[in-house]
Amino acid sequence: xxxxxxxxxQWGDEGKGKVVDILAEHADIxxxxxxxNNAGHTxxxxxxxxxxxxxxxxxxxxxxxxxxxxxxxxxxVLVEERDTxxxxxxxEADEQLKISDRAHLIxxxxxxxxxxxxxxxxxxxxxxxxxGIGPTYEDKMARDGxxxxxxxxxxxxDELLRKQVERKNRYLVEILDGEAVDxxxxxxxxxxMRAELAPHxxxxxxxxxxxxxSGRRVLFEGGxxxxxxxxxxxxxxxxSSNTVSGAISTGGGVAPxxxxxxxxxxxxxTTRVGAGPFPTELLDENGERLQKDGGExxxxxxxxxxxGWFDAVxxxxxxxLNGLDGLAITKLDVLTGFEKIKVCTAYELDGERIxxxxxxxxxxxxxxxxxxxxxxxxxxxxxxxxxxxxPKNARRYVQALEDLTGVPSFLVSVGARRRETILLxxxxxx
Length: 430
Ligand code: GDP
Ligand code: IMO
Ligand code: MG
Fold this sequence. Notes:
Layout: E1 3-8, H1 16-23, E2 29-32, E3 41-45, E4 48-52, E5 64-67, E6 72-73, H2 75-87, E7 97-100, E8 104-105, H3 108-121, H4 133-141, H5 148-151, H6 157-175, H7 183-197, E9 201-202, H8 204-213, E10 218-221, H9 246-252, E11 259-267, E12 270-272, H10 285-293, E13 306-308, E14 310-311, H11 312-322, E15 326-330, E16 340-349, E17 352-354, H12 361-366, E18 368-375, H13 392-405, E19 409-413, E20 421-423
Helix pairs in contact: 3-4, 3-6
């Protein structure tokens, strides 16, 4: 049985957590393969809201949770998240949470560097989550990183850590004007984390290979979104990992031909947190209304999310880069009550029509969205469980998104709760 993947098709926060929670019912194992606790995935079941940052969103369905080698892991955040879930009777057995021995650790100096660097960037700051994500991936690529396999090696670890703390402290103090971290404190914290996390550390690539070979169903859960991908997003206003489905292979440790179906997540409009280009951003009362009605505040940092109309150029880009088989469209309910809804179908750049996202900063600043206007609807739609339950104009809107992106919808979400969902096609059944 091939695997299914859920990835963000916009700038993150598309509702991946909600949809992974729903699809996890049909899976045995749920896997994060990139990013770290910059992610904030919200699951609403009944009246209870859970936000996970590192542990895959299949956790409420009692599935095996895997943190792949491509994830950067802040061990203290992971232990806290695990223990909070354990208090609710989840992840009780150690085997239910597996961490790759090749995953890199986010250590206190990474967080300090992230924050100090953003301070130094001043007005051109990226608006990172301040979780140390970028500096940890930099260390990985510079071959200065520390992995779980190193943490588990009691004999060599302290020396490795000492060398890194010394180097990073020089950089922090002399170049970034920041504060040094204390080696003894970090070492003690790491010792504690070793004891806490040792039962979970395995070769997750071997585990996933065996699981897939024996017919277990695996669901891969992306973090962030395609426009935050370090190669394909709005560089440099991106995160430091590849977020597209191709990263499942490197970051999950599974071959590309194991991935069967890729689901692309998008909101029925667009949001982004942090700085950077956003062609369809609304700086008017419509933007304020989307923010208010959509409750658009970051699940990780609580920052207000910038809001704008649906951008089909962005989602088409995501369809191409991820090989999207289907869309999961969320937050359709938030559009209720708009008389007219605009959708960006293409851009104009210097008088010429373009239909892919330009790379250059100057060009991105000059693009002007070309809009098509669609009629809205007034009816509340959160009780819809089939497309036929939707008002005609809402159905027409969904159809327009499918036509403009060239991707059929697998799921339409009409509220934050698990049950507020129209499931059109189960990707595990295709
Ligand atoms: P993720 O990072 O992609 O998992 O998304 P987040 O959890 O950061 O943000 C999505 C937000 O939208 C969360 O607060 C969800 O509870 C909420 N949400 C998801 N789907 C819907 C929906 O269809 N309607 C509404 N109103 N809220 C939704
Ligand atoms: P989920 O998985 C939305 C954004 C940050 C910032 C940029 C770089 O919940 O969709 P970083 O800390 O990664 O170096 O910040 O990326 N960002 C996200 N925006 N959702 C996320 O994750 C994000 N993770 C990072 O706001 O603009
Ligand atoms: Mg989020």
